[in-house]
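Cont'd.
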Amino acid sequence: MSVNIKSAATPKGFLFSTVEAAVKKPGRKDLAMIYSEKECIAAGMFTTSSVKAAPVKLDMKLIKSGSGRAIVVNSGNANACTGPQGMRDAVETAGLVAGLKGINRNSIYVCSTGVIGTPMPMERIRAAASGLVEGIGKSTMEDVAAAIMTTDTFHKVISVRKKIGGAMVTITGVCKGAGMIRPDMATMLCFITTDASIERMALDTALRQAVARSFNRITIDGDMSTNDTVLVLANGMAGNGMIKLKSESYKIFAGALAEIAYGLSEMIVKDGEGATKLVEVEVRNAKNERDAERGAFAVANSLLVKTAIYGNDANWGRIMAAAGYSNARFNPEKTDIFFNKVHVVKKGVMNNKDREATAEIKSKKLKITVDLQAWNASAKVLTCDLTENYIRINAEYRT
Amino acid sequence: MSVNIKSAATPKGFLFSTVEAAVKKPGRKDLAMIYSEKECIAAGMFTTSSVKAAPVKLDMKLIKSGSGRAIVVNSGNANACTGPQGMRDAVETAGLVAGLKGINRNSIYVCSTGVIGTPMPMERIRAAASGLVEGIGKSTMEDVAAAIMTTDTFHKVISVRKKIGGAMVTITGVCKGAGMIRPDMATMLCFITTDASIERMALDTALRQAVARSFNRITIDGDMSTNDTVLVLANGMAGNGMIKLKSESYKIFAGALAEIAYGLSEMIVKDGEGATKLVEVEVRNAKNERDAERGAFAVANSLLVKTAIYGNDANWGRIMAAAGYSNARFNPEKTDIFFNKVHVVKKGVMNNKDREATAEIKSKKLKITVDLQAWNASAKVLTCDLTENYIRINAEYRT
C-alpha cells in the first residue's frame, strides 16, 4: 500500500526545515522543525504511560502556557529511559534552536521517536542545529513527515481547507506511526498546524474530541509508547473571526480537525507493520459507547482474529470468542456478525454463508460488524492483519 | 521442544478409553473417556468468557452437585456458538455413554475443543460411543492426553505421589493447550484425577489456589477461549484419612496439586504455537500482588517484547514501555531490570551490559525480572516468544 500526496496546502505563516543529524545513522534527514512566523495558540495530548520520554515530560510542562512557536523533532532515538541526562538533552535542544533563532526557549516543543534507552547523541544534534535554523523555509510539510518516519513505509500528510468566519482557513497534519499503536496513541507523533484564529479552550476541546475517535481508536499490536504526542499550533494568520466554543464556526473547525485526525489514523493503520489489509471493526447496539469500544478493541487486538484475516480464513468463531472475553455486556445468542455486507452469523450461530464470507475476507479493506442487537451504542476501531512480516520487522528492529 | 513421559502413575480406580470418531477428519483417536470405578468428589473451573461452549454450560450445572464419575472429551470441534442444538448434542453425548455403561447421566462431564461454530458431527459420535465404552481400561492417561491435542505438538501428563494420611496418594493431570492461553485459562482443557479421600470444600479450595498461580498466570497470545475447563475427580480409593481444609494433610495435597498445575502450565507455554523460548517474567517489589501481576502480564503479552526475544534483541526499552502502560504503580526512575542474572537496567537507565544481555537473551529459558524497588509484592507470569510460525499456524488453522 502506498499513499502519495504531492503537495499539501500549507497554512499561512508556517515554515519548515529538515536536516541530516545522523541521530541513529547517517544517510537521511532525521531532524525537523516546524516554525510559525507568529506566536501560536497551542494544544497537546500525550502518552498516558507512566514511562514517559524526557521530551514528553518537557512538552507537558510547556503546554500549560497554551502557546508555542515551534516544534523540533528527531527520529532515530526516543530519548526515553535516559534519566536526568535525557531531560537535560531535551532542554538543551530547545535552547540551541531558540538561541540561534532568537525566540523564547519555552515556546519550542521538542519531540523524539526511535529506540528507547540510548542517550541522545547531543554532539550531532549540536552540530546540526545551525543548519536546521538556517534551513527554515527551505523544506515542506512532506519533508517533515518523511524526516520523522521510523518503520513507516510512506509519509503521512493531510490538508483540509474550510471557509470559516469570513476567511479561508487551512489545517494541515503530519504524523508518523506504523506499529505499537493502540488506545491512547502509541508510538505516534502528530503535528497539526493551522492559520485559524481560535480560542485556546476551543482548540483544546476540538483536539480532544478528534483524538478520542481517531488515534485512540486504532490498534496495530496493542502496545503503547513512551513518546506519543499530538500537538496543534494555531497562529491566527488566516484572518478569520475568532473561533469560540459552541459556535457555528467551531463546529466547522472541529469537523475539519476530526477529519484530519481520522485520515491520519487510517494512514497509520494502512502502514501497520507488515500489514496487508485494513480492517474496520464496528460493534453496534451495545449498552453504551464504552462497552462498544471494549468489544471492538478485543476483536481488533485479537491475534487469532488478525492472523485468520491474514490467512483469508473467515473464522468468525474467533470474533465471537474475542467479544466474549472483552467484558462488554451482551448475549451471544442474539449476536449477528457481518463481513462487509455478508451476514455470517445470525443469532450467535453460523448462517451458512461460508463461501460468500471467504470471498469477502479477501478484501484489502474489510469491515467486520458485530451487532449485539440489544441497546443502541456503537464504536468503530481500525486495525490491520498480523503477518510474518510484522514479526520480522520487530524481531530485527535494532539490528 | 518435546516432553516425554513414558508412563505416569495412575491413581487407583481410574480407567481410560480412546477411540477414533473422526470428529474433524479421520486418522487419529479424537474421543476419550476418563472413568472412575467409584463415584468421585468433583471440583471444576471454567472460562470466564461470556461466550461459553455448550459443554461448558452443561458442566457448570453438573459441578454444582460436587460429584462425578466420568469425563467424555473430544478434540476437533469446540461445540461453541452452536446454539440450542449444541446443548442438545452435549447432553446427548453424556446420555449415550451413560446408557451404554449404565451410570447416571448427570455424573458425566462433557468437554470439547477445536473449531468454533461448526455443529458437532453427532452421527459419528453416536457411531463411536459403544467402542468408547467397550474400550474402558484399554487406554492410558497418555492416550487421553494425545486424543485431546489440537495444535499441541506433544502430549502433557504429570503425576505426583505423596504419602498423605497414612496412605500413598496419587494425583495425575493431563492437559491440552498451545495457543490462545491467558489469564482465566484459555483454550485449555485439564483433567486431574486422584485417589485421595478429600472433602469437597478442600478439593475446591486447593484447585482454585493451584489455578490462580498456574493456568491463570500463563500467556501465549492474550486470547481466551470459549471452552476452558479444569476438572478434578477424587475417588477416595487410596484409603487415606479424609483430607480436610486447613489440616496438615491438606497442605501436602494442595502443594502436590499446585505442582501438577504449574508443571502442566509450563508445558503449555513450552508448546506455545511456534514458540522457540520459554520466558518467565517476574515483577518484584510492587505495591500489591495485583499490581505485580498487571505489570508482569503487560510485559509477557507485549508483541514487541515477544518479537524482540525471538530476534535475540535485548531491547529492554520495550519492557519498560510495557510496564509503563500496565497501570501498575511504579517509579521508572527506581526500576531495575535483569535478564537472568545480568543487571541490564539500573534505576531506569541502561547499565552498559549490552553484550552480556545479548548473550543471556539467547537462552532457551529466559527469566526477566523487573524490580520496582518500592514495596514488597511479587508475581510471576510464564510466556514464550512470538515467531513467524505462530502466524503461519494460526493463519492456516482451518485449512
